[in-house]
Every structure is written in C-alpha cells, then in structure tokens.
Design goal:
With 639 residues, the chain is of the alpha/beta class. The protein contains 32 helices and 10 strands. It is globular. It binds guanosine-5'-triphosphate.
Length: 639
C-alpha cells in the first residue's frame, strides 16, 4: 500500500483522487485492489482508488498513458456512472491536473478557466476520435496551409469578444473539430469512450475539418466576406498572429493537456476566433463550415481566395477596353475621292446601261435595228430622247454597217454626254458687290436643300466668306434645328422664327440682319413643297418678291436641289420651280448610289440650267463641283 500511495503521490494530481476515494467509499475496492496490488506492479495503483472495473480497463489502456490526465478524467466519468452526483465535484479536481499540461502550454490554461465546465466534456469525447493516428497528422498538415488564410479571419473576430455569444451556438459543432487538432494528446482519452459515442463521428471527421475548417474554412470565409467588406487583407494581417496563437495553443494543448482542459481551451480559442470570423462573414459561409466542412475543408479554403480573382478579371476587362481604344485610332480609313464616290454611285446607272449596250452590240454589225435598240437603252437610262438621238446619230455617222463593240458604243456615248453637260457644268459665281449675296434654295421635299446649304456654307466659310443662314422652312421644327446644327458647325449665325411663322417675313428680316451684319452671303432655306401645290408655290413666289423689295436683284442665286433618284419627274420639278422662283442653278443630289443618274443629262439638255454641284453623300464635304467629262465617263463606264 505504501508503494501504491507513493506512486499516487508521485503523480501529484492523483493525490486528490485518493481523497475522493475515501469519500466515495472505495473501502471494498481498496481491499480488493490491495490484493491485486500485492500481485502486479503499481500500475494498477491509480485504478484501485478509482475502484470501478472501468478503472481497471482504463488502467490497462492507460498503462502507458497513465501519467496523462486521461486517467483522472476517466475516473471522473467512470465514477459519475456509478454516482453522477459525485462526478460533478470530481470534475473540478480533474481539471486541476490539466495544469500539468498547462506548464507545457501556459497560454491555453488561461482560456480554460472560463470555459472549463462545458468544454471538458466535449473535449474528452473528441479525444477518442483523435486516437485515429491518421487523423492527427491530417490536422497538422492542415495548419501549414491554413495558417496563412486563417490569420485573416481571426483578427477581426477576436476583438469583438461580445460576438462570441453568436458564435457559441455554432461552437458545439465546431468544438469537436478543434479537439481533433489537439488530438495528439487526446489519444489518451480513449478511456472516455462513453461520451465518444456521440462525439467520435463528428469529432474525428469534424475534428480534421474543424481544425482545418477552423483553419482552412476560416481563411476562405475570412477571405470571402472580409475581403469584400473590408477587402483589405490588412485586417487579416493582424489576425495571423491571433490565429497562430490560437492554433498553437490548440496544438500545444492537444499535445500535452489534450485530455482534460486542453480540449476546451483549444476549442474555445479556436472556436472563438475562427467562429466569430466566420459568423460575421456571412451566414452562408457558416453553413458551409458546419454542414459540409469535412468534404469541403481543403477545397473550401481555396475557392474562397479564388473569388478574389473575379475582381481581378474586372480589371482585365478594363485593360481590354484600353486596348480597344488604340484600335479606334486606325479606324480613320482613307476616304475615297469624290470622283470615286461619284463613280461608285453611278456604277448602278453605268452597269445597267453598259450591260444593256453590250447586249445590243455583241458581235453585231451596226444597222437600223441595233440603232433602235441602243436608243431604247439610253432612254430607259433617263438620258432623255434628245441625248439618245445624239448618241445614235453620232454612232451611225461613223460606224454604220461595221462591226461595233459595246466599248465603241460607250466611248461615243461618253463623248456625246459630255458635250451636252459641258454647257451646264459651270462653277457657282457669287457677286459680292451685293452685301449680302442672297442664295435662295428651293426644291421638293427631301431633295437635300438643308443638307446642301450646310455643305455650301462650309465651303464658303472655309473660303473666308462670312455667311448667314435663314431658316425659311417654318413648317418643320426639325428643319430649323437641322439648320442650326449646320450653323454651329460652320460658325454661321442662323436666323430663325417660330413654327408656322411667315416664311417671307423671315426671309425679309434675315436679309436686313445680313445687311446689318455685313455678311458676304445669306443663304435662305425654304420648306420643301411639291411643284403642284399652288399655295406653297405662291408662298415661294412671295418670298422672292419680298426679297426684291430690299434689293431688286435679290435673290441673286436661286438654287434648286434635284434628287437624282427622282427620275423623269425631276424634269417637271425644275420647270415649275424655274417659273415660280426663277431657279438659275441646280445641285444634283444623291448621285451616290442611284441607277438613274442619267436624268442629269436630260435636265441639262432640256433646261440648260447650270449645274453647280453634285451631292455624293451626306457628309459636309460630299458636295463637289460638277464636271461634265468626269460625269460622262463615269456614267458611260469609260475609264
Ligand atoms: N446619299 C445622299 N443623301 C443626301 C444627299 N443630300 C442630302 N441627303 C439626305 O437626304 C435627306 C434629306 O435631306 P434634307 O437636306 O433634309 O432635304 P430637304 O430638301 O431640306 O428636306 P425638307 O426640309 O423636308 O424639304 C437627308 O437624310 C440628307 O442627309 C446626298 O448628296 N447624298
């Protein structure tokens, strides 16, 4: 017995056990053990006081681990089984032995005191699971990877100690997890089998995950929400130390004191820091940790950091945009010359015409039939009867009865068309003795009056002339705004009035204003109107009459815009406007992309009015002086 007690005393902590034994009435067991003590070594010594068979069993298991706390704990639990009432008092003493491991890990102990009561139980439960050798290594491995991410979450969480209450609910689940981390020592716990039943399943699996989860999952979680919220890992940086401490404590505790308080301590520490962090981050994350931590542990941490890349991608898109910008620079593609544009525009007219001509003169001698066919082709091309006869007459005069190719025919046609146009292809001359030189622009709706005014104003202002614009189209607000835009672009003042105002009155006012301003040129826009609209045509006539009151020679130039796509109706338009407004010049618009450009030749042949410009587009510089030869060659398809 003496030796037995000595051994007990040597354990120190076990001394308490002896006293307890006395209280619990271990007398019968004492005798029984005394007998055993005589037989075996002192190994069973601690057990005797514990008395129960469980003690023996525990002793057998804990032979090697006796020194460890597990024994006291085992005794506590075992005894509780017999008389749980007593177990409570024993628990306190049992934890006391923990201090022993504490020396090894002083940090954990301080934490334990506050949570010892609840924690001790869960810890022992978890311990059994940790026994699994494979598991302990896992947690250890985890820490390395986890430490980096974990630190972040903890720091934030640590400060808000009050938040722990929220965390605690989650702890029960997590608590088992931290225990595994401490597993190293827990291996001794196995004796605590009773509780393990519940714990093991969660503990072992959870433990690793928990340890990792706390570590791995936490980092991710921390990375997720924290990053987004604070984004700044700056907060995390402070955490690392905290985590490290918590982890170290956990690890240390597990190593030495795992059995008893060690578990609660690490858990508490782990749970508090990581849990808090997770909880705050987002409920979603918490779910991940609790529910599927085990499967996710390793991957979860990784995915968490990955989300960060997402924002990185955003930056990438920005870079892409920047790259796109430089691409825009080269966009300014070289613009085709006006002639090329006119040529392309007349391509449809030319292609149809030359194609038909080729169809007539394919390996055929020139005779009356072929000449008649050619005349029909030219007329259908809107060149007009007069121009068609000029071409057929010229062809018959030189090639009648001979083989004629379509190229010969096109060449002769170009020459004859040029002859017709030469007399009308004149440059616009402005008599600046008039201050201002008044240009009245008329025409049917949509033929390009306002656009042509803008283009012309640009040419004049570019030439150093001062220009004033008058919005005589008082019927359409859009027309007024359109002219104002052109005025801004050409830096030309625009005189306008309210919708529905008298156009003649506006023209008169504008003329006076231009005189007062000393403008070189006044360009007056008018409302589009069909030549068969008597009232509108009368209004146009009135405008001309009113302008004449200020200057008998005004308007000095009356330009009519003619839409090349109009066809034969253009001939009638020019005739009417010429009679009503005294048109003395034409601008053939929309020659770009029409198959009816031949009408220009017909108009020129019939009215012999000057064609100052041709419109080959909607841009400001798409107004070109009319060239008879170029137009003729273009429409005839002659290079
Ligand atoms: N392709 C092409 N379009 C043109 C040309 N000239 C004018 N346009 C377009 O033809 C349309 C009518 O031009 P406007 O200048 O408004 O014609 P408008 O005669 O003033 O019209 P109203 O005020 O309604 O009488 C606009 O879309 C112009 O961009 C041209 O030479 N080529």
């Amino acid at each position: 017995m003496a030796g037995f007690f000595k051994k007990i005393f040597s354990f120190g902590k076990k001394e308490v056990v002896e006293e307890r034994i006395d209280e619990t009435t271990p007398l019968p067991p004492i005798k029984w053990e005394a007998l055993e003590a005589l037989k075996p070594a002192a190994e069973q010594a601690p057990h005797p006081p514990l008395d129960g068979e469980g003690r023996r069993e525990a002793a057998g298991r804990g032979d090697g681990a006796d020194a460890d706390h597990p024994h006291p704990q085992a005794s506590l639990r075992t005894s509780p089984i017999e008389g749980e009432v007593k177990a409570a008092p024993e628990l306190a003493p049992v934890e006391e032995p923990k201090p022993e491991p504490a020396p090894t890990i002083p940090a954990p102990e301080p934490v334990v005191p506050s949570e010892p009561e609840p924690l001790p139980e869960p810890a022992p439960e978890e311990e059994p699971a940790p026994e699994t050798p494979a598991e302990p290594p896992a947690p250890e491995e985890v820490p390395p990877a986890a430490p980096e991410p974990e630190p972040e979450p903890q720091p934030q969480e640590v400060p808000p100690a009050p938040l722990e209450p929220e965390i605690e609910p989650a702890r029960p689940e997590k608590l088992p997890e931290p225990a595994p981390a401490e597993v190293p020592a827990p291996a001794e716990v196995p004796a605590e089998t009773p509780a393990p039943v519940e714990v093991p399943p969660p503990a072992t699996p959870s433990t690793q995950p928990s340890a990792e989860a706390s570590a791995a999952p936490h980092p991710p979680a921390g990375t997720f929400s924290p990053y987004r919220d604070g984004e700044k890992a700056e907060a995390p940086t402070p955490h690392p130390p905290l985590d490290g401490e918590g982890r170290r404590a956990a690890a240390g505790w597990g190593d030495s004191a795992d059995a008893g308080a060690s578990h609660p301590h690490p858990q508490a520490a782990l749970g508090t820091s990581p849990i808090e962090g997770e909880v705050k981050r987002t409920p979603v994350e918490a779910k991940l940790i609790i529910g599927e931590v085990a499967p996710a542990p390793a991957p979860s941490p990784q995915p968490s950091p990955e989300p960060k890349p997402a924002p990185g991608k955003v930056t990438v898109t920005k870079k892409v945009e920047q790259k796109a910008e430089p691409v825009k620079a080269p966009e300014p593609a070289p613009r085709r010359s006006w002639f090329q544009r006119m040529r392309d525009g007349l391509a449809r007219s030319s292609k149809e015409l030359t194609g038909n001509i080729a169809g007539v003169f394919t390996k055929r001698k020139l005779d009356e039939e072929t000449l008649q066919d050619l005349e029909d082709v030219l007329i259908r091309a809107d060149l007009g009867l007069e121009t068609a006869l000029r071409v057929t007459d010229a062809l018959a005069a030189s090639r009648y009865g001979k083989d004629v190719s379509d190229e010969d025919v096109r060449s002769i046609m170009a020459a004859e068309v040029e002859k017709v146009l030469t007399h009308v292809a004149m440059p616009l001359e402005l008599d600046l003795s008039h201050k201002p030189h008044v240009i009245l622009v008329v025409g049917v709706n949509g033929t390009g009056k306002t656009t042509t005014i803008g283009k012309l104003a640009a040419k004049l202002t570019d030439g150093g002339l001062s220009v004033m614009l008058a919005a005589g189209d008082t019927f359409r607000a859009a027309a007024i705004e359109q002219l104002k835009i052109w005025g801004e672009r050409t830096k030309s003042p625009v005189i306008a009035s309210k919708i529905g105002a008298d156009a003649a009155g506006l023209a008169y006012d504008a003329f006076e204003r231009a005189k007062e301003a000393g403008s070189d040129v006044l360009i007056i826009d008018t409302a589009g109107r069909l030549q068969n609209k008597t009232e509108l045509m009368a209004e146009l006539e009135k405008i001309v009459r009113v302008l004449g009151k200020l200057d008998p020679e005004a308007p000095h130039t009356v330009l009519q815009t003619v839409d090349a796509t109009t066809g034969q109706n253009a001939l009638n338009q020019v005739e009417i406007f010429r009679n009503v407004a005294g048109v003395n010049g034409l601008v053939m618009t929309k020659l770009d992309g029409t198959a009816r450009g031949g009408i220009l030749v017909a108009i020129a042949a019939k009215h012999k009015l000057p064609v100052y410009f041709i419109g080959v587009g909607e841009q400001v510089d798409d107004l070109e002086p009319f060239s008879a030869s170029e137009f003729a060659r273009a429409i005839a398809g002659v290079a």
